[in-house]
Amino acid sequence: MVKLRSSAYAWLLLLVSMPVLAGRSGEPVQPIQPPKEINLALADLGKKLYFDPRLSRSGFISCNSCHNLSMGGTDNLKTSIGDHWAQGPINAPTVLNSSLNIAQFWDGRAKDLKAQAGGPIANPGEMAFTHPLAVSTLETIPGYVREFALAFGDDTIDIDRVTSALAEFEKTLVTPDAPFDRWLLGDDAAVSDMALNGYRLFKESGCVGCHNGAALGGTSFQKMGVVEPYVTQNPSLGVAGLTGADADRFRFKVPTLRNIELTYPYFHDGEAQTLTEAVDVMGRLQLGRRFTAAENQSIVAFLKTLTGAQPAFILPQLPPSVDATPRPEPFQR
Amino acid sequence: MVKLRSSAYAWLLLLVSMPVLAGRSGEPVQPIQPPKEINLALADLGKKLYFDPRLSRSGFISCNSCHNLSMGGTDNLKTSIGDHWAQGPINAPTVLNSSLNIAQFWDGRAKDLKAQAGGPIANPGEMAFTHPLAVSTLETIPGYVREFALAFGDDTIDIDRVTSALAEFEKTLVTPDAPFDRWLLGDDAAVSDMALNGYRLFKESGCVGCHNGAALGGTSFQKMGVVEPYVTQNPSLGVAGLTGADADRFRFKVPTLRNIELTYPYFHDGEAQTLTEAVDVMGRLQLGRRFTAAENQSIVAFLKTLTGAQPAFILPQLPPSVDATPRPEPFQR
Predict the structure, then answer these.
(1) Whether residue B140 sits in one domain with residue B89
(2) Same domain for B52 and B147?
(3) Separation of alpha carbons B257 and B186, rounded Å
(4) Are residues A231 and A270 located together in one domain of the fold?
(5) Cα angle vertex B109, ends B105, B113, to 5°?
(6) A157/A229 same-domain check
């Protein structure tokens, strides 16, 4: 009993001496939490599927092609390249921290990661495959059959299980331990004075109204162009594309600002090439505020403190096709 | 002194009790040796460059796109997909163990890995960039400038250094410890009787005449279609494309058989979809021998023992572009 008690005291002492783990109180931004309750077998299967171009008709495009985990979970292109070099209609949002979004895609048409994952596979301008063909390809691959059995208890493969595995892997793709998170957790030296000034300005000028929470975004839909209209050649209508309502025109999910230094170019059309430009446009169009060069610079310095620990895992090895596996014919129309 | 001596005896004893490390004597195939004398800073830089699509005009295609290290160092397509979905003229050879080749490309036109590495970057049907543009892109990226300085002693970036780094990384991509290597090193249980029968047949029927050494290939150029002509729609002429000599028509570098289970489809035109088909065609066209179904099966079983330990490393994180970095315009012609 004495031993137990002394160890309880030690624990209490440890708690008292630690930085504030719940975050500086009252801040509208919270540290990213590492994922909890990950099903490792499922996530490991999902990781392979994420890197597997056999989910595309061409055998060339995988999830990682456009949500590249070496590049902030994006392709760093204005809009993505799809099957037969199709020009995508919209900027590929980062997969990093996407589990924190209230819904997926810029217009929120998928309610969660699992619902999202099936979209690109069957989109003719992206992976250009069909769910039945993707599944029937996987079913021929003994390495996958074994992994589905391990993850699900039996070796049935269907699109529901494929997307469940992809979603489970994507849940692991959070990026904690950004300099700003270390500051939130009590390390005063983690960010520069300029970045802290930028954060204050970010709060005072209203950016934080939409870009708040752990992901600094991803939790609401807002109109692009509140004070001034947004002018673009990009045909995407945002939520109006789903509802047909004029009020929803250019209403998009607010993107996360996590890892924003890595996820250029910016906006749904990818037309803002730099953070300086993005901050300037957002200030003018959303807040009616022209940031001075110094203000803009401070906010950009703050935004650069939001780059967290990137996913670190061994490049997956994909189970090979066998004689019975259908072979892609990428040059057929 | 006594201690030293006893430890010398222990070493001798260990040597005597170990399997034959130099390989079973007299075999025409030797175990793959792990790489020696790797410059780690250079290889690490090369790994990033290998995964970096900013070496392509589109910003979409990296070395890993067609020599995918999740897929046996190939794209598993008949011929590769290049810029604007260009249809490549030839099957992408595996990058795995390519350091063991006497020369690079199917026709051997590059004398080594370094000479090869610059080819696809500037090939209009592959990465479609130019060496000066690739270099001037890298020069704007602070993360690369630092890594070049670390690897080379100063921060000059030029194509010679880029290809040196790529080649150094590729030197690490050897795949030791295949079941057949374990057998060669003395582990009798490492391969099945059927595979051993296949190996005997592989030697007796003459396959080993060209597919020998540590890589089972990669050390000579041979005519495709010795006994019977090879019929293909593929326009590649092999060495004749370089020399113009009729005798060199369809003379190609003998491909390695290492990891052949992963590097389907087969031949320079990728027209053999399965190992069974490849073994059959090779037997008939190169050796004038029709393998029975059972013989073919044994040889295929042997070939599948050549899959070694695949490259295992953390997915690299690429240093981000900055405001000054030129942005790719993948949809411009």
Answers:
(1) yes
(2) yes
(3) 21
(4) yes
(5) 60
(6) no
Q: Do the Cβ atoms of B85 and A85 come within 8 Å?
A: yes
Contact A127, A120 (CB under 8 A): yes
- Expressed as residue numbers, the domain containing A257 is 179-306
Within an 8 Å CB–CB cutoff, is residue A252 touching chain B? no
Nearest to A113 by CA among A73, A58, A61, A155: A73
Residue B250: name the closest of B286, B206, B283, B218 by CA. B286
In this structure, the answer to whether residues A158 and A259 fall within a common structural domain is no
In this complex, which of A60, A85, A276 lies closest to B323 when CB atoms are compared?
Answer: A276
Could A60 and B75 be called an inter-chain contact, meaning their C-beta atoms sit closer than 8 Å? yes
C-alpha span between A317 and B74 (Å, rounded): 12
Which helix or strand (DSSP H or E) is residue A48 part of? helix A40-50
pLDDT digits (tens, 9 = 90+) for A115-144: 999 999 999 999 999 999 999 999 999 999
- Overall domain count for chain B: 2
The last residue of one of the domains, among B171, B203, B219, is B171
The closest CB to that of B81, out of A70, A72, A330, belongs to: A330
The CATH number for B150's domain is 1.10.760.10
B297 shares contact with chain A (CB less than 8 Å): no
Q: Spell out the per-residue pLDDT of chain B, length 333, in tens.
A: 344 444 444 444 444 444 444 558 899 999 999 999 999 999 999 999 999 999 999 999 999 999 999 999 999 999 999 999 999 999 999 999 999 999 999 999 999 999 999 999 999 999 999 999 999 999 999 999 999 999 999 999 999 999 999 999 999 999 999 999 999 999 999 999 999 999 999 999 999 999 999 999 999 999 999 999 999 999 999 999 999 999 999 999 999 999 999 999 999 999 999 999 999 999 999 999 999 999 999 999 999 999 999 999 999 999 999 999 999 989 987
Q: Tell me, yes or no, if B94 comes closer than 8 A to chain A by beta carbon.
A: no
Question: Do residue A155 and residue A192 come from a single domain?
Answer: no
**What number of other Cβ atoms are within 10 A of residue A132's Cβ?**
11
Residue B87 at interface with chain A, using a CB cutoff of 8 Å: yes
Structure confidence by residue, pLDDT tens digits, A70-113: 999 999 999 999 999 999 999 999 999 999 999 999 999 999 99
A316–B70 C-beta distance less than 8 A? yes
Q: Are residues B191 and B283 in the same domain?
A: yes
In this structure, the answer to whether residues B186 and B164 fall within a common structural domain is no
Burial A243-270 (b: 16+ CB within 10 A, else e): eeeeebbbbbbbbbbbbbbbbbbbbbbb
In a domain, A254, yes or no: yes
